[in-house]
Amino acid sequence: EETVEDGLHYLKERYRWKDLFKNGFRDFLVTGKVFYKVDILNGDPHIRRVDPRNIAYDASGENDFLEDAQWVVEQRWLSVNEILDEFGDELTKEDVMELENMRQISSGSELAHYNTSIEWLNYDSSTGVRIRLIHGEWKSIRAVKFKVSPNKYDESNPFRKLVSDTYRPRKGETVETKYVDDIWEGTKIGGRIVVNCRRRPNQVRSVDDAGSTPLSYVGCTHNMSAGRVTSLVDVLKHIQTLYNVVMY
Predict the structure, then answer these.
(1) What is the Cβ-side half-sphere exposure of residue 233, based on CA atoms within 13 angstroms?
(2) Mean pLDDT of the chain
(3) What secondary structure, in 3-state letters, does the chain show?
(4) Any bridge partners for residue 135, and if so which?
(5) pLDDT digits (tens, 9 = 90+) for 152-183
(6) Cβ proximity of 194 and 200 under 8 Å
(7) What are the tens digits of pLDDT across the range 81-124?
(8) Burial class for 112, CB neighbours closer than 10 Å (0-12, 13-18, 19+)
(9) With left for phi above 0 and alpha for psi between -120 and 50, is residue 16 left, alpha or beta?
(10) What pTM did the predictor assign?
(11) Closest CA to 110 of 119, 102, 118
């Protein structure tokens, strides 16, 4: 426990989590939404703030928490170097050459070669080329097997251990099949490159409830369960308007 706590303090300072959460709190005050992407980066737990303007999700749920949604899609505009830093291990040599070709674009006619029904590339003389990246996560269903063992302390609540799909029960063993949430993901870069189309690794499950697992996108939408998102700015807007009228 002490080692884990020391590790969390180290990560908090290294990745400036305090500043990250301040920015998230500002998002919550202005938009009524605060979102983060929790992932593993270079072997470390990593948290990235998600701009509420760049994310779409299943808004038909009955609670305010993003990780319980059925699907999430996020778009970002990144430079070639930022893409290489984040996805370098997953990109092939051909993918890197394609990114290099995108980097060297300098005219509208060249942009039209990539921008068809959707704008995938944006060029500005001051910032250079920015590439649209779209990442999606969604929940599917997967059949898993559990080996059931008797519990001598509570016979009505036996022990269940997750086993592989190819597990063959021994004589006298009981194996149950249950259907659980299974998260898939995929990323499209520049309209040409597709990476990480797979079952998402490191799906966290509770021992008490192995059926459900949260998305890697977490956060809160204030008052979503009541049907209308309300931020602090929304609440104070009318008061600010009244103040402006009176002072005028």
Answers:
(1) 10
(2) 88
(3) CHHHHHHHHHHHHHCCHHHHHHHHHHHHHHHCEEEEEEEEECCEEEEEEECHHHEEECCCCCCCEHHHCCEEEEEEEECHHHHHHHHCCCCCHHHHHHHHHHHCCCCHHHHHHHCCCCCCEEEECCCEEEEEEEEEEEEEEEEEEEEEECCCCCCCCCEEEEECCCCCCCCCCEEEEEEEEEEEEEEEECCCEEEEEEECCCCCCCCCCCCCCCCCEEEEECCHHHCCCCCHHHHHHHHHHHHHHHHC
(4) 74, 187
(5) 898 888 888 888 888 888 888 888 888 889 99
(6) no
(7) 999 988 888 899 999 999 998 888 876 677 877 887 888 998 88
(8) exposed
(9) left
(10) 0.82
(11) 102
pLDDT range class, residue 209, cuts 50, 70, 90? confident
Which of 193, 206, 61, 40 is CA-nearest to residue 139? 61
* pLDDT of residue 125 exceeding 80: no
Count of Cβ atoms closer than 10 Å to residue 229 Cβ: 16
Give the whole-angstrom CA distance, residue 241 versus residue 223. 23
| 111 neighbors 119 (Cβ within 8 angstroms) | no
